[in-house]
Amino acid sequence: MRLPVLGENGDARLARTVAFTFIATVTILALYFGRPVLIPVAVAVLFAFILNPVVNGLRRVLPLSLSVTLALLGAIACIGVLAVLAMTQLAEVAGSLAGYQTNLHQKIRDVRQLSEGAGPLNRFMSMAAAVAQDLSPEAGSTVPAVRVQTSDSNLASVATFVAPLLHPLLSIGIVIILALFILLDRDHLSDKVVRLFGADVHATSQAVADAAGRIARLLSLQLLTNTGFAILVGLGLFALDMPNALLWGLLAGALRFVPYVGAILGAVLPTLIALAVMPGWLQPLLVLALIVAFDILVGQLVEPLLFGESTGVTPLALILSAIFWGMLWGPVGLLLATPLTVCLLVLGTHVPQLHFLRVLLGDEPALAPYQQIYRRLIRGAVVDAAAVAQKEILEKGLEHGLDESLGRMVVLADRDRELRRLNARQTGIIVDGTDEVLDLLAETSGDRPAAEAKAAANLAGDARGLLVHCVGGRGEVDDAAAAVIAFSLRQAGLQAEDSRRAQPIDASREKGPVLLVVCYASHPSQAVLRYNRRKLHAGVTQIRHAVIDYEVAPMSDLAAKVGLAGDLVAGDIAAIARFMLQESTSIAKNTAMTTSPG
Protein backbone atom coordinates (compact mmCIF):
# COMPACT_ATOMS: atom_id res chain seq x y z
CA MET A 1 0.00 0.00 0.00
CA ARG A 2 1.43 3.38 -1.00
CA LEU A 3 1.40 6.21 1.47
CA PRO A 4 -0.37 9.39 0.40
CA VAL A 5 1.95 12.03 -1.01
CA LEU A 6 2.08 15.18 1.04
CA GLY A 7 1.68 18.51 -0.63
CA GLU A 8 4.37 21.13 -0.69
CA ASN A 9 3.03 22.84 2.42
CA GLY A 10 2.69 19.51 4.22
CA ASP A 11 6.29 18.57 3.38
CA ALA A 12 7.54 21.92 4.66
CA ARG A 13 5.59 21.61 7.92
CA LEU A 14 6.80 18.04 8.43
CA ALA A 15 10.41 19.05 7.75
CA ARG A 16 10.18 21.95 10.20
CA THR A 17 8.66 19.69 12.86
CA VAL A 18 11.35 17.04 12.44
CA ALA A 19 14.11 19.65 12.46
CA PHE A 20 12.72 21.35 15.57
CA THR A 21 12.36 18.02 17.40
CA PHE A 22 15.90 17.00 16.47
CA ILE A 23 17.40 20.34 17.56
CA ALA A 24 15.45 20.35 20.84
CA THR A 25 16.54 16.77 21.63
CA VAL A 26 20.18 17.48 20.88
CA THR A 27 20.05 20.67 22.97
CA ILE A 28 18.57 18.92 26.01
CA LEU A 29 21.09 16.08 25.75
CA ALA A 30 23.92 18.60 25.46
CA LEU A 31 22.66 20.49 28.52
CA TYR A 32 22.46 17.27 30.52
CA PHE A 33 25.76 15.65 29.54
CA GLY A 34 27.62 18.95 29.43
CA ARG A 35 26.82 19.78 33.06
CA PRO A 36 30.45 19.69 34.28
CA VAL A 37 31.31 22.49 31.85
CA LEU A 38 28.04 24.40 31.51
CA ILE A 39 27.16 24.73 35.21
CA PRO A 40 30.36 26.62 36.19
CA VAL A 41 29.99 28.84 33.12
CA ALA A 42 26.35 29.62 33.93
CA VAL A 43 27.13 30.34 37.59
CA ALA A 44 30.03 32.58 36.56
CA VAL A 45 27.79 34.55 34.19
CA LEU A 46 25.19 34.86 36.95
CA PHE A 47 27.88 36.03 39.37
CA ALA A 48 29.10 38.57 36.82
CA PHE A 49 25.59 39.94 36.36
CA ILE A 50 25.23 40.42 40.13
CA LEU A 51 28.59 42.20 40.43
CA ASN A 52 28.18 44.31 37.30
CA PRO A 53 26.37 47.23 39.06
CA VAL A 54 29.10 47.25 41.75
CA VAL A 55 31.81 47.36 39.09
CA ASN A 56 30.01 50.19 37.30
CA GLY A 57 29.92 52.18 40.53
CA LEU A 58 33.61 51.62 41.26
CA ARG A 59 34.57 52.46 37.67
CA ARG A 60 33.70 56.08 38.31
CA VAL A 61 36.73 56.49 40.57
CA LEU A 62 38.97 53.47 39.83
CA PRO A 63 40.39 51.69 36.77
CA LEU A 64 38.51 48.69 35.39
CA SER A 65 40.97 46.04 36.61
CA LEU A 66 41.05 47.42 40.14
CA SER A 67 37.25 47.81 40.20
CA VAL A 68 36.72 44.20 39.16
CA THR A 69 39.30 42.96 41.68
CA LEU A 70 37.77 44.86 44.57
CA ALA A 71 34.24 43.76 43.65
CA LEU A 72 35.30 40.11 43.44
CA LEU A 73 37.28 40.20 46.67
CA GLY A 74 34.37 41.85 48.50
CA ALA A 75 31.92 39.27 47.18
CA ILE A 76 34.23 36.38 48.09
CA ALA A 77 34.71 37.80 51.59
CA CYS A 78 30.96 38.16 52.12
CA ILE A 79 30.23 34.66 50.83
CA GLY A 80 33.06 33.23 52.94
CA VAL A 81 31.80 34.87 56.12
CA LEU A 82 28.26 33.66 55.47
CA ALA A 83 29.50 30.14 54.69
CA VAL A 84 31.52 29.98 57.91
CA LEU A 85 28.55 31.23 59.93
CA ALA A 86 26.22 28.74 58.27
CA MET A 87 28.57 25.79 58.77
CA THR A 88 29.11 26.74 62.42
CA GLN A 89 25.39 26.99 63.02
CA LEU A 90 24.75 23.69 61.22
CA ALA A 91 27.32 21.92 63.35
CA GLU A 92 25.70 23.36 66.46
CA VAL A 93 22.26 22.21 65.32
CA ALA A 94 23.52 18.70 64.54
CA GLY A 95 25.19 18.45 67.95
CA SER A 96 22.17 19.65 69.90
CA LEU A 97 19.41 17.59 68.21
CA ALA A 98 20.12 14.62 70.51
CA GLY A 99 19.19 16.78 73.50
CA TYR A 100 15.68 17.47 72.23
CA GLN A 101 14.35 13.89 72.37
CA THR A 102 12.11 14.75 75.33
CA ASN A 103 10.24 17.38 73.32
CA LEU A 104 9.88 15.03 70.37
CA HIS A 105 8.53 12.20 72.55
CA GLN A 106 6.06 14.58 74.18
CA LYS A 107 4.75 15.81 70.84
CA ILE A 108 4.43 12.23 69.60
CA ARG A 109 2.37 11.41 72.71
CA ASP A 110 0.21 14.48 72.03
CA VAL A 111 -0.42 13.28 68.50
CA ARG A 112 -1.24 9.77 69.70
CA GLN A 113 -3.83 11.14 72.11
CA LEU A 114 -5.74 12.51 69.12
CA SER A 115 -6.71 8.96 68.28
CA GLU A 116 -7.35 6.40 70.96
CA GLY A 117 -7.67 2.67 70.76
CA ALA A 118 -7.23 1.13 67.33
CA GLY A 119 -7.73 4.29 65.33
CA PRO A 120 -5.92 4.75 62.00
CA LEU A 121 -3.59 7.43 63.36
CA ASN A 122 -2.62 5.28 66.32
CA ARG A 123 -2.01 2.29 64.06
CA PHE A 124 0.17 4.42 61.79
CA MET A 125 2.25 5.70 64.71
CA SER A 126 2.67 2.18 66.08
CA MET A 127 3.80 0.91 62.72
CA ALA A 128 6.29 3.78 62.38
CA ALA A 129 7.65 3.10 65.87
CA ALA A 130 8.03 -0.61 65.10
CA VAL A 131 9.87 0.11 61.86
CA ALA A 132 12.12 2.62 63.63
CA GLN A 133 12.90 0.06 66.33
CA ASP A 134 13.77 -2.56 63.72
CA LEU A 135 16.04 -0.15 61.90
CA SER A 136 17.73 1.25 65.00
CA PRO A 137 21.37 0.24 65.70
CA GLU A 138 20.36 -1.37 69.00
CA ALA A 139 17.89 -3.75 67.31
CA GLY A 140 18.85 -7.38 66.82
CA SER A 141 21.92 -9.05 68.15
CA THR A 142 24.63 -6.93 69.63
CA VAL A 143 27.80 -7.08 67.60
CA PRO A 144 30.95 -6.05 69.42
CA ALA A 145 32.76 -3.18 67.88
CA VAL A 146 35.82 -4.22 65.97
CA ARG A 147 38.63 -1.76 65.52
CA VAL A 148 40.56 -2.30 62.35
CA GLN A 149 43.99 -0.84 62.16
CA THR A 150 45.55 -0.20 58.82
CA SER A 151 49.02 0.57 57.84
CA ASP A 152 48.06 3.60 55.76
CA SER A 153 50.33 6.56 56.18
CA ASN A 154 49.30 9.97 57.37
CA LEU A 155 49.56 11.27 53.81
CA ALA A 156 46.98 8.72 52.63
CA SER A 157 44.62 9.73 55.45
CA VAL A 158 44.94 13.38 54.46
CA ALA A 159 44.30 12.52 50.81
CA THR A 160 41.20 10.56 51.78
CA PHE A 161 39.91 13.58 53.66
CA VAL A 162 40.79 16.16 51.00
CA ALA A 163 39.64 14.22 47.90
CA PRO A 164 35.88 14.81 48.42
CA LEU A 165 36.54 18.54 48.87
CA LEU A 166 38.71 18.85 45.77
CA HIS A 167 35.92 18.93 43.17
CA PRO A 168 33.82 21.65 44.90
CA LEU A 169 36.94 23.77 45.49
CA LEU A 170 37.99 23.42 41.87
CA SER A 171 34.48 24.35 40.71
CA ILE A 172 34.48 27.45 42.93
CA GLY A 173 37.90 28.44 41.60
CA ILE A 174 36.74 28.02 38.00
CA VAL A 175 33.66 30.15 38.68
CA ILE A 176 35.76 32.94 40.23
CA ILE A 177 38.27 32.94 37.36
CA LEU A 178 35.52 32.92 34.71
CA ALA A 179 33.64 35.74 36.46
CA LEU A 180 36.88 37.75 36.63
CA PHE A 181 37.55 37.50 32.91
CA ILE A 182 33.88 38.06 32.01
CA LEU A 183 33.86 41.33 33.97
CA LEU A 184 37.21 42.43 32.57
CA ASP A 185 36.27 41.67 28.97
CA ARG A 186 32.51 42.33 29.10
CA ASP A 187 32.45 44.92 26.27
CA HIS A 188 34.33 42.69 23.85
CA LEU A 189 32.23 39.68 24.81
CA SER A 190 29.07 41.66 24.11
CA ASP A 191 30.44 42.65 20.70
CA LYS A 192 31.28 39.02 19.94
CA VAL A 193 27.75 37.90 20.83
CA VAL A 194 26.28 40.55 18.54
CA ARG A 195 28.64 39.58 15.73
CA LEU A 196 28.04 35.86 16.17
CA PHE A 197 24.22 35.79 16.46
CA GLY A 198 23.04 38.76 14.46
CA ALA A 199 23.44 40.05 10.94
CA ASP A 200 21.34 43.03 12.04
CA VAL A 201 23.64 44.78 14.51
CA HIS A 202 20.97 47.12 15.84
CA ALA A 203 18.34 44.42 16.49
CA THR A 204 20.84 42.00 18.04
CA SER A 205 22.36 44.75 20.20
CA GLN A 206 18.89 45.65 21.39
CA ALA A 207 18.18 42.02 22.27
CA VAL A 208 21.48 41.62 24.15
CA ALA A 209 20.95 44.89 26.01
CA ASP A 210 17.38 43.91 26.86
CA ALA A 211 18.45 40.52 28.22
CA ALA A 212 21.37 41.97 30.17
CA GLY A 213 19.26 44.77 31.63
CA ARG A 214 16.42 42.51 32.68
CA ILE A 215 18.67 39.89 34.26
CA ALA A 216 20.91 42.39 36.04
CA ARG A 217 17.93 44.26 37.43
CA LEU A 218 16.18 41.05 38.43
CA LEU A 219 19.19 39.59 40.21
CA SER A 220 20.12 42.84 41.96
CA LEU A 221 16.63 43.39 43.29
CA GLN A 222 16.27 39.74 44.25
CA LEU A 223 19.53 39.93 46.18
CA LEU A 224 18.36 43.10 47.93
CA THR A 225 14.90 41.82 48.87
CA ASN A 226 16.06 38.35 49.90
CA THR A 227 18.80 39.83 52.08
CA GLY A 228 16.22 42.02 53.78
CA PHE A 229 13.94 39.01 54.17
CA ALA A 230 16.77 37.01 55.77
CA ILE A 231 17.45 39.83 58.24
CA LEU A 232 13.76 40.11 59.15
CA VAL A 233 13.38 36.35 59.66
CA GLY A 234 16.59 36.12 61.68
CA LEU A 235 15.59 38.98 63.99
CA GLY A 236 12.04 37.63 64.37
CA LEU A 237 13.22 34.14 65.25
CA PHE A 238 15.75 35.58 67.68
CA ALA A 239 12.91 37.47 69.39
CA LEU A 240 11.03 34.16 69.69
CA ASP A 241 14.07 32.53 71.37
CA MET A 242 14.57 30.18 68.44
CA PRO A 243 18.02 28.57 68.64
CA ASN A 244 20.34 29.27 65.70
CA ALA A 245 18.13 32.09 64.42
CA LEU A 246 20.95 33.36 62.18
CA LEU A 247 21.11 30.04 60.33
CA TRP A 248 17.37 29.92 59.65
CA GLY A 249 17.34 33.53 58.51
CA LEU A 250 20.15 32.85 56.03
CA LEU A 251 18.45 29.66 54.86
CA ALA A 252 15.10 31.40 54.34
CA GLY A 253 16.73 34.22 52.36
CA ALA A 254 18.77 31.82 50.19
CA LEU A 255 15.81 29.55 49.42
CA ARG A 256 13.74 32.52 48.19
CA PHE A 257 15.93 32.55 45.08
CA VAL A 258 14.17 29.32 44.07
CA PRO A 259 10.82 30.27 42.48
CA TYR A 260 7.77 29.60 44.67
CA VAL A 261 9.01 26.30 46.16
CA GLY A 262 11.91 27.97 47.98
CA ALA A 263 9.67 30.17 50.11
CA ILE A 264 7.73 27.09 51.26
CA LEU A 265 10.90 25.20 52.18
CA GLY A 266 12.25 28.25 53.98
CA ALA A 267 9.18 28.22 56.22
CA VAL A 268 8.81 24.46 56.70
CA LEU A 269 12.38 23.61 57.76
CA PRO A 270 12.60 26.08 60.70
CA THR A 271 9.13 25.02 61.79
CA LEU A 272 10.17 21.35 61.94
CA ILE A 273 13.23 22.27 63.97
CA ALA A 274 11.07 24.42 66.25
CA LEU A 275 8.81 21.43 66.87
CA ALA A 276 11.82 19.47 68.11
CA VAL A 277 13.45 22.31 70.05
CA MET A 278 10.66 24.33 71.63
CA PRO A 279 8.29 22.92 74.27
CA GLY A 280 4.59 22.98 73.50
CA TRP A 281 2.87 23.85 70.23
CA LEU A 282 2.46 27.62 70.45
CA GLN A 283 6.02 28.68 69.72
CA PRO A 284 6.48 26.43 66.63
CA LEU A 285 3.23 27.80 65.21
CA LEU A 286 4.44 31.34 65.94
CA VAL A 287 7.64 30.56 64.02
CA LEU A 288 5.63 29.42 61.00
CA ALA A 289 3.27 32.41 61.22
CA LEU A 290 6.20 34.84 61.49
CA ILE A 291 7.96 33.53 58.39
CA VAL A 292 4.72 33.43 56.38
CA ALA A 293 3.85 36.99 57.45
CA PHE A 294 7.28 38.30 56.44
CA ASP A 295 7.06 36.46 53.11
CA ILE A 296 3.67 38.03 52.38
CA LEU A 297 4.99 41.46 53.38
CA VAL A 298 8.04 41.22 51.12
CA GLY A 299 6.31 39.43 48.24
CA GLN A 300 3.12 41.47 48.09
CA LEU A 301 4.29 44.92 49.20
CA VAL A 302 8.04 45.42 48.95
CA GLU A 303 8.79 43.51 45.73
CA PRO A 304 6.00 45.13 43.65
CA LEU A 305 7.27 48.57 44.72
CA LEU A 306 10.89 47.76 43.88
CA PHE A 307 10.41 45.63 40.79
CA GLY A 308 7.67 47.83 39.28
CA GLU A 309 6.76 45.69 36.30
CA SER A 310 7.28 41.97 36.47
CA THR A 311 9.90 39.93 34.62
CA GLY A 312 7.32 39.25 31.92
CA VAL A 313 7.20 35.50 32.66
CA THR A 314 4.03 33.77 33.81
CA PRO A 315 4.08 32.01 37.21
CA LEU A 316 3.28 28.67 35.56
CA ALA A 317 6.24 29.09 33.19
CA LEU A 318 8.54 29.86 36.14
CA ILE A 319 7.40 26.73 38.00
CA LEU A 320 7.82 24.50 34.94
CA SER A 321 11.19 26.11 34.25
CA ALA A 322 12.32 25.41 37.82
CA ILE A 323 11.27 21.75 37.43
CA PHE A 324 13.03 21.45 34.05
CA TRP A 325 16.33 23.05 35.08
CA GLY A 326 16.23 21.31 38.46
CA MET A 327 16.00 17.92 36.75
CA LEU A 328 18.85 18.83 34.38
CA TRP A 329 21.27 20.59 36.72
CA GLY A 330 20.05 19.84 40.25
CA PRO A 331 20.04 22.58 42.93
CA VAL A 332 22.09 24.92 40.72
CA GLY A 333 19.42 24.61 38.06
CA LEU A 334 16.79 25.75 40.55
CA LEU A 335 18.78 28.91 41.27
CA LEU A 336 19.37 29.59 37.57
CA ALA A 337 15.81 28.82 36.45
CA THR A 338 14.48 32.39 36.55
CA PRO A 339 17.44 34.09 34.77
CA LEU A 340 17.52 31.40 32.09
CA THR A 341 13.78 31.71 31.52
CA VAL A 342 14.10 35.48 31.17
CA CYS A 343 16.81 34.95 28.54
CA LEU A 344 14.55 32.59 26.60
CA LEU A 345 11.73 35.14 26.78
CA VAL A 346 14.00 37.86 25.40
CA LEU A 347 15.03 35.55 22.55
CA GLY A 348 11.37 34.90 21.76
CA THR A 349 10.72 38.65 21.75
CA HIS A 350 13.54 39.66 19.40
CA VAL A 351 14.03 36.58 17.19
CA PRO A 352 11.03 35.95 14.86
CA GLN A 353 11.83 32.24 14.48
CA LEU A 354 11.58 31.82 18.27
CA HIS A 355 8.35 33.77 18.73
CA PHE A 356 6.70 30.67 20.19
CA LEU A 357 8.87 31.13 23.31
CA ARG A 358 7.25 34.51 23.91
CA VAL A 359 3.81 32.95 23.56
CA LEU A 360 4.64 30.05 25.89
CA LEU A 361 6.58 31.96 28.55
CA GLY A 362 5.31 35.55 28.39
CA ASP A 363 2.64 36.94 30.66
CA GLU A 364 1.05 38.92 27.83
CA PRO A 365 -2.33 37.56 26.68
CA ALA A 366 -1.90 35.05 23.89
CA LEU A 367 -5.10 36.29 22.21
CA ALA A 368 -6.49 39.77 21.67
CA PRO A 369 -9.51 40.71 23.82
CA TYR A 370 -12.01 40.23 20.99
CA GLN A 371 -10.52 36.79 20.26
CA GLN A 372 -10.84 35.87 23.92
CA ILE A 373 -14.52 36.92 23.91
CA TYR A 374 -15.10 34.98 20.69
CA ARG A 375 -13.72 31.75 22.17
CA ARG A 376 -15.62 32.17 25.42
CA LEU A 377 -18.91 32.80 23.66
CA ILE A 378 -18.50 29.71 21.48
CA ARG A 379 -18.16 27.53 24.58
CA GLY A 380 -21.00 29.38 26.37
CA ALA A 381 -18.92 31.19 29.03
CA VAL A 382 -20.92 34.41 28.88
CA VAL A 383 -19.82 35.74 32.27
CA ASP A 384 -16.15 35.30 31.39
CA ALA A 385 -16.69 37.04 28.05
CA ALA A 386 -18.43 39.93 29.80
CA ALA A 387 -15.52 40.22 32.23
CA VAL A 388 -13.07 40.61 29.33
CA ALA A 389 -15.26 43.24 27.68
CA GLN A 390 -15.73 45.10 30.96
CA LYS A 391 -11.97 45.16 31.52
CA GLU A 392 -11.36 46.61 28.06
CA ILE A 393 -14.00 49.30 28.58
CA LEU A 394 -12.57 50.26 31.97
CA GLU A 395 -9.02 50.43 30.63
CA LYS A 396 -9.63 52.12 27.26
CA GLY A 397 -12.89 53.97 27.72
CA LEU A 398 -16.36 53.12 26.47
CA GLU A 399 -15.93 53.88 22.78
CA HIS A 400 -12.50 52.37 22.18
CA GLY A 401 -13.06 49.51 24.63
CA LEU A 402 -16.33 48.49 22.96
CA ASP A 403 -14.63 48.46 19.58
CA GLU A 404 -11.66 46.41 20.77
CA SER A 405 -13.88 43.84 22.45
CA LEU A 406 -17.34 43.24 21.01
CA GLY A 407 -16.99 45.22 17.77
CA ARG A 408 -14.02 43.29 16.43
CA MET A 409 -15.51 40.06 17.81
CA VAL A 410 -18.59 40.52 15.62
CA VAL A 411 -16.41 41.16 12.56
CA LEU A 412 -14.39 38.01 13.32
CA ALA A 413 -17.55 35.94 13.72
CA ASP A 414 -18.93 37.21 10.40
CA ARG A 415 -15.68 36.35 8.61
CA ASP A 416 -15.69 32.82 10.04
CA ARG A 417 -19.32 32.46 9.04
CA GLU A 418 -18.50 33.39 5.45
CA LEU A 419 -15.65 30.88 5.45
CA ARG A 420 -18.07 28.21 6.77
CA ARG A 421 -16.07 27.76 9.97
CA LEU A 422 -19.18 28.34 12.06
CA ASN A 423 -22.26 26.17 11.86
CA ALA A 424 -25.77 27.42 12.54
CA ARG A 425 -25.72 26.34 16.19
CA GLN A 426 -22.43 28.12 16.93
CA THR A 427 -23.63 31.25 15.17
CA GLY A 428 -26.76 31.29 17.28
CA ILE A 429 -24.71 30.81 20.46
CA ILE A 430 -22.54 33.81 19.57
CA VAL A 431 -25.52 36.06 18.78
CA ASP A 432 -27.43 35.10 21.93
CA GLY A 433 -24.24 35.38 23.97
CA THR A 434 -23.62 38.89 22.62
CA ASP A 435 -27.06 39.95 23.85
CA GLU A 436 -26.33 38.49 27.30
CA VAL A 437 -22.92 40.17 27.48
CA LEU A 438 -24.52 43.53 26.59
CA ASP A 439 -27.13 42.99 29.31
CA LEU A 440 -24.35 42.37 31.84
CA LEU A 441 -22.48 45.46 30.64
CA ALA A 442 -25.68 47.52 30.92
CA GLU A 443 -25.98 46.54 34.58
CA THR A 444 -22.52 47.98 35.27
CA SER A 445 -22.87 51.02 33.00
CA GLY A 446 -24.24 52.96 35.94
CA ASP A 447 -20.71 52.93 37.36
CA ARG A 448 -19.61 55.49 34.74
CA PRO A 449 -18.28 58.76 36.16
CA ALA A 450 -21.00 61.35 36.75
CA ALA A 451 -19.27 63.89 34.52
CA GLU A 452 -19.10 61.44 31.61
CA ALA A 453 -22.78 60.45 31.97
CA LYS A 454 -23.83 64.12 32.19
CA ALA A 455 -21.83 65.00 29.08
CA ALA A 456 -23.47 62.16 27.14
CA ALA A 457 -26.93 63.29 28.25
CA ASN A 458 -26.23 66.89 27.22
CA LEU A 459 -24.86 65.77 23.87
CA ALA A 460 -28.02 63.81 23.08
CA GLY A 461 -30.37 66.44 24.49
CA ASP A 462 -31.25 67.89 21.09
CA ALA A 463 -32.34 64.45 19.84
CA ARG A 464 -35.05 63.96 22.48
CA GLY A 465 -38.19 62.37 21.11
CA LEU A 466 -36.41 60.49 18.35
CA LEU A 467 -36.05 56.70 18.41
CA VAL A 468 -33.07 55.00 16.79
CA HIS A 469 -33.98 51.46 15.80
CA CYS A 470 -31.09 49.12 14.90
CA VAL A 471 -31.74 45.94 12.94
CA GLY A 472 -29.50 43.34 11.30
CA GLY A 473 -29.09 43.72 7.56
CA ARG A 474 -28.58 40.12 6.40
CA GLY A 475 -28.36 37.37 9.00
CA GLU A 476 -27.74 36.47 12.60
CA VAL A 477 -24.24 37.96 12.93
CA ASP A 478 -25.59 41.26 11.64
CA ASP A 479 -28.19 41.04 14.41
CA ALA A 480 -25.31 40.92 16.90
CA ALA A 481 -23.76 43.95 15.20
CA ALA A 482 -27.09 45.80 15.55
CA ALA A 483 -27.22 44.96 19.26
CA VAL A 484 -23.70 46.30 19.83
CA ILE A 485 -24.38 49.52 17.89
CA ALA A 486 -27.66 50.07 19.74
CA PHE A 487 -25.85 49.61 23.05
CA SER A 488 -23.26 52.23 22.10
CA LEU A 489 -26.03 54.66 21.10
CA ARG A 490 -27.82 54.18 24.42
CA GLN A 491 -24.56 54.83 26.25
CA ALA A 492 -24.23 58.04 24.21
CA GLY A 493 -27.60 59.20 25.56
CA LEU A 494 -29.91 58.35 22.66
CA GLN A 495 -33.15 56.43 22.84
CA ALA A 496 -32.13 53.31 20.94
CA GLU A 497 -33.39 49.77 20.60
CA ASP A 498 -32.53 46.76 18.48
CA SER A 499 -34.38 43.80 17.03
CA ARG A 500 -33.62 40.73 15.00
CA ARG A 501 -33.97 40.90 11.26
CA ALA A 502 -36.71 38.26 11.29
CA GLN A 503 -38.86 40.40 13.60
CA PRO A 504 -41.24 42.86 11.89
CA ILE A 505 -40.55 46.54 12.55
CA ASP A 506 -43.63 48.48 13.64
CA ALA A 507 -42.60 52.12 13.58
CA SER A 508 -46.18 53.37 13.66
CA ARG A 509 -46.41 52.78 17.42
CA GLU A 510 -43.86 55.52 18.01
CA LYS A 511 -45.24 59.03 18.34
CA GLY A 512 -42.00 60.74 17.38
CA PRO A 513 -39.60 60.38 14.47
CA VAL A 514 -37.77 57.08 13.91
CA LEU A 515 -34.27 56.65 12.52
CA LEU A 516 -33.77 53.12 11.23
CA VAL A 517 -30.17 51.91 11.24
CA VAL A 518 -29.57 48.74 9.22
CA CYS A 519 -26.37 47.18 10.60
CA TYR A 520 -23.83 44.92 8.90
CA ALA A 521 -20.75 43.16 10.22
CA SER A 522 -19.15 43.38 6.76
CA HIS A 523 -19.83 45.27 3.54
CA PRO A 524 -23.08 44.11 1.89
CA SER A 525 -23.64 43.71 -1.82
CA GLN A 526 -25.58 46.27 -3.80
CA ALA A 527 -28.43 43.79 -4.17
CA VAL A 528 -28.74 43.49 -0.39
CA LEU A 529 -28.72 47.27 0.00
CA ARG A 530 -31.44 47.74 -2.63
CA TYR A 531 -33.58 45.02 -1.08
CA ASN A 532 -33.31 46.48 2.44
CA ARG A 533 -33.99 50.04 1.21
CA ARG A 534 -37.18 48.88 -0.47
CA LYS A 535 -38.43 46.57 2.29
CA LEU A 536 -37.45 48.40 5.48
CA HIS A 537 -38.04 52.04 4.57
CA ALA A 538 -41.79 52.00 5.13
CA GLY A 539 -43.01 53.71 8.30
CA VAL A 540 -39.68 55.29 9.32
CA THR A 541 -38.54 58.88 9.09
CA GLN A 542 -35.02 58.15 7.87
CA ILE A 543 -32.92 55.10 7.12
CA ARG A 544 -29.17 54.64 7.34
CA HIS A 545 -27.00 51.62 6.62
CA ALA A 546 -24.06 51.16 9.01
CA VAL A 547 -21.14 48.81 8.27
CA ILE A 548 -18.59 47.95 10.97
CA ASP A 549 -15.32 48.44 9.09
CA TYR A 550 -11.94 48.72 10.83
CA GLU A 551 -10.02 49.32 7.61
CA VAL A 552 -11.25 52.91 7.27
CA ALA A 553 -8.28 55.22 7.83
CA PRO A 554 -8.81 57.44 10.88
CA MET A 555 -9.09 61.10 9.89
CA SER A 556 -10.11 64.25 11.70
CA ASP A 557 -13.05 64.88 9.42
CA LEU A 558 -16.03 62.85 10.68
CA ALA A 559 -17.60 62.20 7.30
CA ALA A 560 -14.32 61.01 5.84
CA LYS A 561 -13.57 58.91 8.91
CA VAL A 562 -16.82 56.95 8.78
CA GLY A 563 -16.71 56.66 5.01
CA LEU A 564 -20.07 58.26 4.29
CA ALA A 565 -21.49 57.37 0.87
CA GLY A 566 -25.12 58.35 0.45
CA ASP A 567 -27.04 56.64 3.23
CA LEU A 568 -24.20 54.14 3.87
CA VAL A 569 -21.88 54.71 6.82
CA ALA A 570 -18.73 52.60 7.28
CA GLY A 571 -16.34 52.81 10.21
CA ASP A 572 -15.73 51.64 13.73
CA ILE A 573 -18.53 51.60 16.28
CA ALA A 574 -17.36 54.79 17.98
CA ALA A 575 -17.46 56.75 14.71
CA ILE A 576 -20.81 55.22 13.74
CA ALA A 577 -22.28 56.21 17.11
CA ARG A 578 -21.05 59.81 16.77
CA PHE A 579 -22.39 60.06 13.26
CA MET A 580 -25.79 58.67 14.27
CA LEU A 581 -25.89 61.14 17.14
CA GLN A 582 -25.30 63.94 14.68
CA GLU A 583 -27.95 62.57 12.32
CA SER A 584 -30.45 62.13 15.15
CA THR A 585 -30.00 65.74 16.23
CA SER A 586 -30.49 66.95 12.67
CA ILE A 587 -33.61 64.80 12.11
CA ALA A 588 -35.12 65.88 15.43
CA LYS A 589 -34.60 69.55 14.61
CA ASN A 590 -36.04 69.21 11.11
CA THR A 591 -39.06 67.33 12.45
CA ALA A 592 -39.66 70.00 15.08
CA MET A 593 -39.49 72.77 12.45
CA THR A 594 -41.98 71.05 10.13
CA THR A 595 -44.47 70.27 12.88
CA SER A 596 -44.28 73.62 14.68
CA PRO A 597 -47.35 75.91 14.14
CA GLY A 598 -46.89 78.77 11.69
In short:
The protein is mainly alpha-helical and 598 residues long.
Could you explain the architecture of this structure?
This protein has 3 domains: 41-93 and 168-308, no CATH class; 310-364, no CATH class; 370-595, no CATH class. The chain is 70% helix and 5% strand. The chain contains 23 helices and 5 strands. The chain has a 5-stranded parallel sheet with strand order 2-1-3-4-5, with helices on both faces. The N and C termini lie far apart (92 Å).
Helix and strand sequence: HHHHHHHHHHHHHHHHHHHEHEEHEHEH
- What characteristic shape results from the CA principal axes? elongated
Q: What is the radius of gyration?
A: 36 Å
Major β-sheet strand ordering: 2-1-3-4-5
Give the class from helix and strand content and strand pairing: mainly alpha
Largest β-sheet summary: 5 strands, parallel
- Low-confidence blocks of residues: 1-8, 449-456, 553-564
Number of helices: 23
Mean pLDDT, to the nearest integer, reads 76
**Straight-line distance between termini:** 92 Å
List the domain count as a whole number: 3
Strand content: under 5%
> Helicity, in percent?
over 70%
Count of DSSP strands = 5
